[in-house]
């Protein structure tokens, strides 16, 4: 079977074009967030995976749970198209790819900042400013705490990882000592 990202890409690109043409990026982002949460629910996922559930019934179930008024006609059409191809489980990946396309169009980078201890807002702001300066784009940061880092910070921006953690330095030392 093809990789999820490959299967989701045409849908994400189509929704992105639709959102851009309709000047409704945030609206589509919200619809995709809602839909991906609905199909990720364990009960709904099991229901959608049942081969006895037809495409129309699956689409109507997802639309009913998500709320037809919140999805609008175009959102409901997307659900029907995905259900017809048994692609509703792709919604989380479609949402992620849509968000990446949106961020790229808006000149925004997503950064994951993981620290060993909780960071103060001033520290977060300084890290975001440094990342903005380095990449020349706006940066939206998601901050998390991981005590296993021992100390320091790990920053992920796209496929780049900047590891300033004690755990990372210890791994580098162990690698160097091994030869």
CATH architecture of the largest domain: Orthogonal Bundle
Taking the sheet with the most strands, its summary is: 4 strands, mixed
Q: Taking Cα atoms only, what radius of gyration do you get, to the nearest Å? A: 20 Å
Helicity range: 55-70%
Instruction: Please report which band the strand proportion falls in: under 5%, 5-15%, 15-25%, 25-35%, 35-45% or over 45%.
Output: 5-15%
In the residues, how many domains can be counted? Answer: 2
Q: Could you give the order of the helices and strands?
A: HHHHHHEHEEEH
Mean pLDDT: 93
Give a description of the structure.
With about 180 residues, the protein is an alpha+beta fold. The chain folds into two domains: about 5-105, Orthogonal Bundle (Peroxidase, domain 1); about 110-179, no CATH class. It is about 65% helix and about 15% strand. The chain is built from eight helices and four strands, in the order H-H-H-H-H-H-E-H-E-E-E-H. Helix 1 runs antiparallel to helix 2 (about 25-40), helix 2 (about 25-40) packs across helix 4 (about 55-65) and helix 4 runs antiparallel to helix 5. The longest helix is centred in the N-terminal third of the chain and has 18 residues, at about 5-20.
Give a brief outline of the structure.
This protein is of the alpha+beta class. Helix content is 64%, strand content 14%. The N and C termini lie far apart (41 Å).
């Amino acid at each position: 079977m093809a990789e999820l990202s490959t299967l989701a890409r045409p849908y994400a690109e189509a929704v992105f074009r639709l959102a851009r043409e309709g000047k409704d990026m945030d609206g589509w982002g919200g619809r995709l967030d809602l839909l991906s949460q609905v199909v990720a629910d364990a009960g709904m996922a099991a229901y959608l995976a049942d081969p006895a559930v037809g495409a129309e019934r699956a689409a109507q179930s997802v639309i009913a749970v998500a709320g037809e008024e919140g999805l609008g006609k175009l959102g409901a059409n997307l659900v029907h198209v995905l259900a017809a191809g048994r692609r509703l489980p792709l919604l989380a990946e479609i949402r992620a790819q849509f968000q990446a396309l949106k961020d790229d169009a808006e000149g925004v980078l997503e950064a994951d900042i993981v620290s060993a201890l909780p960071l103060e807002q001033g520290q977060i702001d300084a890290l975001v400013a440094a990342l903005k300066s380095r990449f020349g784009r706006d940066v939206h940061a998601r901050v998390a705490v991981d005590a296993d880092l021992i100390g320091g910070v790990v920053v992920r921006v796209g496929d780049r990882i900047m590891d300033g953690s004690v755990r990372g330095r210890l791994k580098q030392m162990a690698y160097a000592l091994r030869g």
